[in-house]
C-alpha cells in the first residue's frame, strides 16, 4: 500500500495474484456447473519472470473455492535468461577472449539479447543468431543457438516445474483425473519445454483461456467492477479462500 502511495497510485485493495487469475477465469467462463452440481476443478499455472505460482480451484456458477496453492518463488523466466547468459559468457570468453562478467554494461546488454533470443526460440526451433555490435573493446560478437540445445542447458531448471504441481494435488487430495482443465498464464509459460512438462504431468492438453500477460490485471479489474455492481444489485457472490468463505 505504501509503495502504491509513493508511486502516486490510488490502490483500492491488495489482491493475491492467484486469486485474481482464478476470478478472471470464473467471471469469463459461462459454462460452469450449477451450484448444486459437482464442482469443476481447474489448475492455474503462472510462470512469470521471477516467480512460479500454481493453484487448483473448484468452480460452480457464482462460486470459486481455492483448494490449494503451491509455488517456487525463485523460479521464473529470469533463470532461463541466466542459463543463456552463462553459456554466451563462456563462448565469448573462448572465442574472443572477453571477460564479459567484468563489464556490467556488456553484461546488461547480453541479458537483454538473451531474453530476446529466448522468446524467439519459443516460436522457432531452427538455429537462431545472436549478434551484438561493439559488444566490448570495440569487438562485434556473434553466435548461434537452437531450441534443442537451449533445452539441454535448462534441464535442471525444468525439473523444478513438476514439484509444485505434485504438491497441489496432494494438498487438495485430488487425482490427475479430477482436474478438468489446466490453464497456463505468465510470460514464461510460453516456453515449449515448460508447456510440455506441465501437459505431460497432467496427461492433458493445456488451456489458454486467459491472456497470459493480462490475466492478473484483468482479475483485479473485474473484482473492482463486480464489487461495484454487486453493491448496486446486492447479488450474492461467494469467494472461498482456503476453505473460508467470504460472502458479499
Ligand atoms: N514468448 C516467450 N517465450 C519465453 N519467455 C517469454 C515469452 N514472452 C515472455 N517471456 C518471459 O516471461 C517473463 C515475464 O512474464 P510475466 O510478465 O508473466 O512476469 P511478471 O508477472 O512480471 O513476473 P512475476 O510474476 O514473476 O512477478 C519474462 O522472463 C519474459 O522473458
Ligand atoms: Mg506475474
Q: Could you explain how this protein is built, in words?
A:
The strands form 2 sheets. A 6-stranded mixed β-sheet has the order 6-1-2-3-7-8, with helices on both faces. It has helices spanning 2-6, 17-28, 77-96, 104-123, 147-153, 155-158, 162-172, 192-202, 215-233, and strands at residues 40-47, 52-60, 63-72, 128-136, 139-145, 181-185, 238-241, 244-247. Helix content is 44%, strand content 23%. It has 248 residues and is of the alpha/beta class. The protein folds into 2 domains: 16-75 and 160-226, Nucleotidyltransferase, domain 5; 78-156, Actin, Chain A, domain 4 (Alpha-Beta Complex), CATH 3.90.640. The structure holds adenosine-5'-triphosphate and magnesium ion. The site of adenosine-5'-triphosphate has 17 residues, from α3 and α4. It holds the Pfam family HSP70. It comes from Ilyodon furcidens. Keywords: ATP-binding, Nucleotide-binding, Stress response.
Helical segment tally? 9
CA-CA gap between termini: 23 Å
Strands, count: 8
**Major sheet:** 6 strands, mixed
Instruction: Work out the helicity level.
Output: 40-55%
The overall average pLDDT, rounded, is 91
Specify the structural class.
alpha/beta
| Radius of gyration based on Cα positions | 22 Å
Q: For the record, what CATH class of the largest domain applies?
A: Alpha Beta
| Low-pLDDT sequence parts | 233-248
Strand content: 15-25%
* Large-scale geometry: globular
- Second-tier CATH architecture of the largest domain: 2-Layer Sandwich
Strand order, sheet with most strands? 6-1-2-3-7-8
* List of distinct ligands in this structure: adenosine-5'-triphosphate, magnesium ion
* Element pattern in H and E: HHEEEHHEEHHHEHHEE
Task: Using the coordinates shown, work out and report the CATH topology of the largest domain.
Answer: Nucleotidyltransferase, domain 5
Keywords: ATP-binding, Nucleotide-binding, Stress response
Organism: Ilyodon furcidens (goldbreast splitfin)
Protein name: Heat shock 70 kDa protein 4
Family: Belongs to the heat shock protein 70 family.
Amino acid at each position: 500500500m505504501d509503495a502504491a502511495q509513493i508511486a502516486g497510485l490510488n490502490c483500492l485493495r491488495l489482491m493475491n495474484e492467484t486469486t485474481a487469475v482464478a476470478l478472471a477465469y470464473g467471471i469469463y467462463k459461462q459454462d460452469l456447473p450449477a451450484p448444486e452440481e459437482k464442482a469443476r476443478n481447474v489448475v492455474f499455472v503462472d510462470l512469470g519472470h521471477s516467480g512460479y505460482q500454481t493453484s487448483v480451484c473448484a468452480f460452480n456458477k457464482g462460486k470459486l473455492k481455492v483448494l490449494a496453492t503451491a509455488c517456487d518463488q525463485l523460479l521464473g523466466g529470469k533463470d532461463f535468461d541466466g542459463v543463456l547468459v552463462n553459456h554466451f559468457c563462456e563462448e565469448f570468453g573462448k572465442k574472443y577472449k572477453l571477460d564479459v562478467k567484468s563489464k556490467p554494461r556488456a553484461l546488461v546488454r547480453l541479458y537483454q539479447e538473451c531474453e530476446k533470443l529466448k522468446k524467439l526460440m519459443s516460436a522457432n526451433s531452427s538455429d537462431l543468431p545472436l549478434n551484438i555490435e561493439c559488444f566490448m573493446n570495440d569487438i562485434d560478437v556473434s553466435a548461434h543457438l537452437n531450441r534443442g540445445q537451449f533445452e539441454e542447458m535448462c534441464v535442471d531448471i525444468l525439473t523444478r516445474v513438476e514439484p509444485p504441481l505434485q504438491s497441489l494435488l496432494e494438498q487438495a487430495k485430488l487425482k490427475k483425473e479430477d482436474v478438468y482443465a489446466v490453464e497456463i498464464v505468465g510470460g514464461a509459460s510460453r516456453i515449449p519445454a515448460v508447456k510440455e512438462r506441465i501437459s505431460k504431468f497432467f496427461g492433458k492438453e493445456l488451456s489458454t483461456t486467459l491472456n497470459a500477460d493480462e490475466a492478473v490485471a484483468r482479475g483485479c479489474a473485474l473484482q473492482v467492477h463486480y464489487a461495484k455492481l454487486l453493491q448496486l444489485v446486492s447479488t450474492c457472490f461467494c469467494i472461498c479462500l482456503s476453505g473460508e468463505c467470504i460472502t458479499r
